[in-house]
Amino acid sequence: MTDIPPDLTWVRAAPPEATGPGPWIEIAFGEGDDAEAPVYLRETSDPDNVVTTNRRKWDAFVLGVQAGEFDHFVEGVAEGGTSAEADGAPTSTV
């Protein structure tokens, strides 16, 4: 298990007009600018559960989002819930 630095600056991925506690995804960048520098992700409702990746993978993910490669995951998602929730299917969190 990777040790999570205690002094990370977490950035909340939420729309500017968002209010309330979320849950929201938060992102923090570890030390270093190289491709293997750590990137940390967590959900505000479970801040002790942190996922770690690296800058190279994070940058590839961001480019994929910008290119629309993941749009099929949100097709039919209504504001305030997911299509799985609307169908009564169980959902999981990251």
Descriptive terms for the model:
94 residues; alpha+beta; four-stranded antiparallel beta sheet; 2 helices; 18% helix; globular; disordered C terminus
Topology:
Elements: E1 11-13, E2 25-29, E3 38-43, E4 46-54, H1 55-66, H2 83-87
Region (Disordered): 1-22
Domain DUF397: 9-65
InterPro entries: DUF397
Structure, described:
- It is globular, with a radius of gyration of 15 Å.
- It has 94 residues and is an alpha+beta fold.
- Mean pLDDT is 84; it is low at 82-94.
- The chain contains 2 helices and 4 strands; from the N terminus they run ββββαα.
- Strands 1-2-3-4 form a 4-stranded antiparallel β-sheet.
- Our estimate of the beta-strand percent is 15-25%
Total helix count?
2
User: Roughly how many Å is the radius of gyration?
Assistant: 15 Å
- Binned, the helix content reads 10-25%
Shape: globular
Overall mean pLDDT stands at: 84
Largest sheet: 4 strands, antiparallel
The strand order across the widest sheet is 1-2-3-4
From the structure provided, what is the oligomeric state, counting identical versus distinct chains? single chain
How many strands in all? 4
Q: How are helices and strands ordered from N to C?
A: EEEEHH
Low-pLDDT segments: 82-94
> Structural class per helix/strand content?
alpha+beta
The figure for the number of domains is 1
Q: Quote the distance from N terminus to C terminus.
A: 17 Å
Briefly say what this structure is.
This protein has about 90 residues and is α+β, with helices and mostly antiparallel strands. The protein has two helices and four strands. It is globular, with a radius of gyration of 15 Å.
